[in-house]
């Protein structure tokens, strides 16, 4: 078995075990929340958009020890990488990412000058075939589509974290009142906790605070984003029939 095939097999097994484990925890947490709400006469509260994008706790309340979004994977196979990639791109260069999915292609212009480390992260992961086979695990029509988690649960990542690069996000959010349609940004679980999860804005303008690194924008394929976003979903905004990434091709120049 090749190294690539073995890595994909391990990732699929990991995702299955984590999903089963997560579903048991989510069911238990929902019951606890329901009992508390009845006793206190309070209705269940909604998870903030920032927590949704962070992929923490899905639609349930995280247990007290769940402060690290990667902690749930500690007893599984090691994450693919030990540390972030060294900077290998040219920040002055012109980079495009073509995400081939089961629903069609999405072409993104990457903002290397404004977010060099984040673009470098995507480029290196893509060139290592990291995204191949990963699904869009959360989608909400009028909001965003989110992917990049090898476990497909919203709690996985590459095994490292990179810092935020928020100057462009602050400029765009101030100008538009949020993140405009077609924006490519990193999902995170707080300051400087970026890994491999990303989201693409499908709504016209999503009123998020500028806490998520913007590092690209869709230049072709918004119809594909729309198709992914409008798919039927089940619990935790997970698609009933998730769309998978086939490849991510990086084009320079």
Query: Which second-level CATH architecture applies?
Result: Beta Barrel
Biggest pleated-sheet summary: 8 strands, antiparallel
Number of helices: 5
Low-confidence stretches: 36-48, 55-77
CATH topology: Cyclophilin
User: Superfamily at the CATH H level?
Assistant: Cyclophilin-like
- What is the straight-line distance between the termini? 35 Å
Q: How many strand units?
A: 10
Assign an overall shape. Answer: globular
Beta-strand content estimate: 15-25%
Q: How confident is the prediction overall: mean pLDDT?
A: 81
Q: What is the radius of gyration computed over CA atoms, rounded to a whole number of angstroms?
A: 18 Å
**Can you write the helix and strand succession as a string?**
HHEEHEEHEEEEEHE
Number of domains: 1
Helix- and strand-based class?
Answer: alpha+beta
CATH top level assignment: Mainly Beta
The residue fraction in helices comes out at: 25-40%
Strand order of the largest sheet: 3-4-7-6-9-2-1-10
Summarize the structure.
The chain has 253 residues and is of the alpha+beta class. The protein has one domain: Cyclophilin-like (Cyclophilin). The chain has 5 helices and 10 strands.
Write a structural description.
With 253 residues, this protein is an alpha+beta fold. The chain has a single domain, classed as Beta Barrel (Cyclophilin). Helices cover 29% and strands 19% of the residues. It has 5 helices and 10 strands, in the order ααββαββαβββββαβ. It has helices spanning 3-40, 49-54, 116-127, 167-176, 222-229, and strands spanning 95-101, 104-110, 136-139, 144-147, 179-180, 183-186, 198-201, 205-206, 214-220, 245-252. A hairpin with a 4-residue loop joins strand 3 and strand 4.
């Amino acid at each position: 078995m090749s190294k690539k095939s073995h890595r994909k097999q391990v990732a699929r097994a990991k995702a299955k075990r984590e999903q089963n484990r997560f579903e048991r925890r989510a069911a238990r947490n929902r019951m606890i929340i329901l009992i508390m709400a009845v006793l206190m006469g309070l209705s269940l509260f909604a998870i903030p958009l920032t927590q949704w994008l962070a992929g923490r706790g899905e639609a349930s309340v995280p247990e007290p020890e769940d402060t690290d979004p990667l902690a749930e994977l500690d007893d599984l196979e090691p994450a693919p990488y030990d540390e972030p990639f060294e900077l290998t791109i040219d920040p002055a260069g012109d980079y495009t990412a073509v995400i081939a999915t089961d629903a069609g292609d999405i072409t993104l212009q990457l903002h290397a000058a404004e977010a060099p480390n984040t673009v470098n992260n995507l480029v290196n992961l893509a060139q290592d075939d990291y995204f191949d086979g990963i699904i869009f695990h959360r989608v909400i029509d009028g909001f965003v589509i989110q992917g990049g988690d090898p476990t497909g649960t919203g709690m996985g990542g590459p095994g490292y974290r990179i810092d935020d690069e928020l100057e462009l996000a602050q400029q765009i959010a101030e100008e538009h009142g949020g993140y405009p349609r077609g924006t490519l940004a990193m999902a995170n679980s707080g300051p400087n906790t970026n890994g491999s999860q990303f989201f693409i804005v499908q709504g016209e303008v999503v009123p998020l605070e500028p806490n998520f690194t913007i590092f690209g924008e869709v230049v072709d394929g918004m119809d594909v984003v729309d198709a992914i976003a409008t798919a039927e979903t089940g619990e935790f905004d997970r698609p009933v029939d998730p769309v998978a990434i086939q490849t991510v091709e990086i084009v320079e120049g």
